[in-house]
Amino acid sequence: MTGAEPADPVAATDDDAAELIAQLRALAGADPADVRQVVAEVLAALDRAAGGALREHLPESIRVDAGLDASRSA
């Protein structure tokens, strides 16, 4: 280890995920539709960065919200 790496990478990931969930819940309290839109935009950006590989792992309803549904793009 170089010192820059967390002692337990899984724990760091869990902490990051918990923080993100808390932030989304706080935002959702204000306007759930806004949160859904933000999440859809983030997923679409991640899918683009992954060369389209993410969309096949997402449920259809999320693909539609994110504009990743192949049947709608035709």
Task: Characterise this structure.
With 74 residues, the chain is mainly alpha-helical. It is built from three helices and no strands. It has helices at 9-30, 32-49, 60-65. α1 (9-30) crosses α2. The protein is globular. The protein starts with 8 loop residues before the first helix and ends in a 9-residue tail after the last helix. 5% of the residues are buried.
- Average of the residue pLDDT scores: 77
> In this structure, how is the largest beta sheet organized?
none
Q: What is the helix tally?
A: 3
Distance from first to last alpha carbon: 49 Å
Instruction: Estimate what percentage of residues fall within beta strands.
Output: under 5%
Poorly predicted ranges: none
The percentage helix is 55-70%
Order of helices and strands: HHH
**How many strands appear in the DSSP assignment?**
0
Rounded to an integer in angstroms, the radius of gyration calculated over CA atoms is: 16 Å
What form results from the Cα inertia axes? globular
Structural class determined from secondary elements: mainly alpha
Short description:
With 74 residues, the protein is mostly helical. The protein contains three helices and no strands. This is Mycobacteriophage protein.
List the helices and strands and how they pair.
Blueprint: H1 9-30, H2 32-49, H3 60-65
Helix pairs in contact: 1-2
